[in-house]
Amino acid sequence: MQGTVVAVSLSQTHTFSKYLSGLIRLKARWGVEGDAHAGTTVKHRSRVAQDPSAPNLRQVHLLHAELFDELRLAGFQVGTGQLGENITTRGVNLLALPKGARLHVGREAVVEVTGLRNPCAQIDALQAGLLAAVLGRDEHGGLVRKAGIMGVVLESGEVRAGDPLRVELPPEPYLPLERV
């Protein structure tokens, strides 16, 4: 599976949205250099309140640009970085990847997929009704989280819009993604 990086974003503070950047630097075992969510232990405020020593499984947030297409068709005006993602992609069904898949991003960076992003009520502050739009139900009635995936950085490297994205699947049996 191959795709493309559409945009890269970061924020030095704990803002909901992130700011578009010409490039981001991924640092092994750390995350996106200069981003508020980088580090070896949890940085998301609700997770820090629960256990500040827990490992950071949310160093990098990746979101598929196809979600923006879907949201536009539903009447929302949402652009890259606004949902808090660091890397916006196109051409790979991120939500269908198994836990442990490795994403080779750009020339050197490697991100291991840890799970699904769990969208929270803050998303409705961006636009009313957006939370419901990024959640769905599968054929069995189970909740489907469409707000992207999270990962940890295994190999450092720079990432820019236009860079290739290649998926390396883990050994079978594949484990489905769960919220992290």
TrEMBL record:
<dbReference type="Pfam" id="PF03473">
    <property type="entry name" value="MOSC"/>
</dbReference>
<dbReference type="InterPro" id="IPR052716">
    <property type="entry name" value="MOSC_domain"/>
</dbReference>
<dbReference type="GO" id="GO:0030151">
    <property type="term" value="F:molybdenum ion binding"/>
</dbReference>
<dbReference type="GO" id="GO:0003824">
    <property type="term" value="F:catalytic activity"/>
</dbReference>
<dbReference type="InterPro" id="IPR005302">
    <property type="entry name" value="MoCF_Sase_C"/>
</dbReference>
<dbReference type="GO" id="GO:0030170">
    <property type="term" value="F:pyridoxal phosphate binding"/>
</dbReference>
<dbReference type="InterPro" id="IPR011037">
    <property type="entry name" value="Pyrv_Knase-like_insert_dom_sf"/>
</dbReference>
<feature type="domain" description="MOSC">
    <location>
        <begin position="18"/>
        <end position="168"/>
    </location>
</feature>
<protein>
    <recommendedName>
        <fullName>MOSC domain-containing protein</fullName>
    </recommendedName>
</protein>
